TrEMBL record:
<protein>
    <submittedName>
        <fullName>Uncharacterized protein</fullName>
    </submittedName>
</protein>
Amino acid sequence: MKRTINLVLIGLLLFSAGNLFSQETKIMVRAQAKDAKFIGTSMGGAKIIIRDVETGKILDEGLTKGITGDTEVILLSPRERYKEITTEKTAGYEASLKLDKPTFVSIEAQGPMSKKQAKVVSSTQLWVIPGKDITGDGIILEIPGFVVDVLSPQTHETISAGTEIEIRANIVMMCGCPVTEEGTWDASGYEIKALISSEGKEHKEINLNSTDKASTFSETVKLVEGDYEIEVYAYDPKTGNTGLDRVNIIVN
């Protein structure tokens, strides 16, 4: 009888010890645009994938949702140690992991999801301990770059030789924040150009200038007959941020 009781007690202890490790663990993951704010609902979010490094198994995945955050707090105020720069409304994805032992994981952010030509992948690795949540600002992954969209000319558009062609592009930060003259993201500090090439016949490089519409840049050019590729890029020499979009047209 005594032996039976002891075995039951040992079983209960082992069961309890197992439960100590088999716990739900929450991790807040955020994707922050380099030199800007957080990627959230307005840009289709950033896809978050958490994997067990040893097995490759996906432990959780989802999209960041929420607002881009407070410009003053994120960018303009002096940073203090341990002071959070996010709120409950700031874009993020709260992952929930079921772990029975400490696990070395990789955390990946892909974004922004609404702009495939601009999507960037950023990742990190860390140990996650069962029951030890990582909340608040959480894990912040930096997403570098600009989102560049060529608005004009259109893909595979046919244009008469010698006519003025408007090259027009929309350029924003990876969080969707506007690029404007003398704004928080000052267009005058960026290099925004169109590279034009045609089967070795002609190569041009022209500057695009700000327009009356925020984040929109434009210039006109005349081209001789040929098949052209137009690449529009943005470059910030202060941060190294870059972005590019391309379009192909026919001039005849």
